[in-house]
Amino acid sequence: MKHFTSLTLIILLLIMSCTDKQDSNKAIEKSSYLDYSNSDDQVTGGIKMIPIETPKGTFNVYTKRMGNNPTMRVLLLHGGPGGTHEEFGNFDGYLPNEGIEYIYYDQLDSYYSDKPNDSTLWTTEHFVEEVEQVRKALNLNKDNFYLLGQSWGGILALEYALKYQDNLKGLVVSNMVASVPEYNTYAQEVLGPQLPSDVLKEIKEIEANKDYANPRYEELLMEHFYTEHILRKPLEEWPKSVHLLFEHLNSEIYVYMQGPSEFGITDEATLSDWDVSDRLQDIKVPTLMLGAKHDTMDPKYMEWMASAVQNGRSITTNGSHLSQFDDPETFFPAVIRFIKDVDEGKFN
After folding, report:
1. Within 10 A of 108 (CB to CB), how many other CB atoms are there?
2. Which of 34, 197, 209, 217 is packed most tightly, with the most Cβ within 10 A?
3. Residues 99-146: pLDDT tens digits?
4. What are the start-end ranges of the E strands in the chain?
5. Which residues are catalytic?
6. Beta strand 101-106 pairing with 57-66
7. In this structure, what is the dihedral angle of CA atoms 242, 243, 244, 245, given to the nearest 10 degrees?
8. CA distance 323 to 281
9. How many CA atoms lie within 13 A of 296 on its CB side?
10. At what angle do helices 124-137 and 152-164 cross, to 10 degrees?
11. Which stretch of DSSP H or E encloses residue 217?
């Protein structure tokens, strides 16, 4: 009996030793993800200011790399236009544990990048070429390059894919339909009428008078619209990164390209007639269309977009325009699964 007990103890110790070694190996693998010791951006903590050549001169844009993965590298395109990478502030809580490398990036004239403040550069054509220059500077290529664009970033991601998809491994379009006229129709005919009638009436009066600077306009939107369709939490529970996003928003480029209204893109804005719906069929790279039930964008239209591209997948969260914050339980597993499926050759 004593012999049996001793033998059992030895076996248990061996099993525990093997388990400890496996855990140690996993720890070593994970530590390499955060090892910047052989990189030229170690001293800056992954930050690189990348020079962008434009017809108006050379300007620098902000990027910050998080982690290392030679086959899964995600460039994040923020919304706005004129927003910041801060809208992705909680990606740190989900992607590192999956070993996925991701890169924050502030587009030209956004808060952390240079601000030439030249409206001739505020075009989709310019920003597509800007992304291409960032790609080259970061050594992203078809074997590792995933592009994730949210809101205006989704417009930019689609435009980039339509011109440069041979450089991409995967594409994620989050919370943006392929047609501004479609977005406007949904905002005015579906979302607007969901507001209390007196609130909608007051908002329309302010917009009719083009009195967008009226503090009452922002107050009404924040209380009745943003907490329903931008981030479905009470304002006091919005995370700091989202508050910083709003604080750092470049309103000049935002109004120039998007317009001052939150019920669609106004006629005078440069994006007012943007529509690539009939070109989606040209996108062959694996694509995830990520919509949200309470978004400012029609989730049914986003589902259709996944069927319009050659190799698409559709996921609809229970969140709103910033669904990474109000439904992370759906948003991040969808993004992670897509990236890994493409990486492992399992996407179809």
Report:
1. 23
2. 217
3. 999 999 999 999 999 999 999 999 999 999 999 999 999 999 999 999
4. 47-54, 57-66, 73-77, 101-106, 145-150, 170-174, 287-292, 312-317
5. 151, 295, 321
6. antiparallel
7. 50
8. 26
9. 24
10. 70
11. helix 215-221
How many whole angstroms separate alpha carbon 148 and alpha carbon 333? 14
pLDDT digit string, tens, across residues 153-201: 999 999 999 999 999 999 999 999 999 999 999 999 999 999 999 999 9
DSSP state of 98: G
Alpha helices in 249-348 (DSSP H): 251-257, 299-308, 323-326, 328-343
Give the single-character DSSP code of 179.
Answer: B
Q: Two tokens at 88?
A: 């992705």
**CATH class of residue range 34-348:** alpha beta
* Strand boundaries in 239-328, DSSP class E: 287-292, 312-317
d(CA 67, CA 70): 10
CA separation for the pair 130, 109 (Å, rounded): 12
Domain residue ranges of the chain, discontinuous segments joined by +: 34-348
> What residues pair up with 28 in beta bridges, in sequence order?
none
**Alpha-carbon separation of residue 268 from 52, 168, 219, 260, 273 (angstroms):** 28, 33, 24, 10, 10
Q: Give Cβ neighbours of residue 36 (< 8 Å, ≥ 6 apart).
A: 42, 45, 46, 68
Residues in the chain, overall count: 348
Bridge pairing between strands 101-106 and 145-150:
unpaired
pLDDT value at 149 more than 80: yes
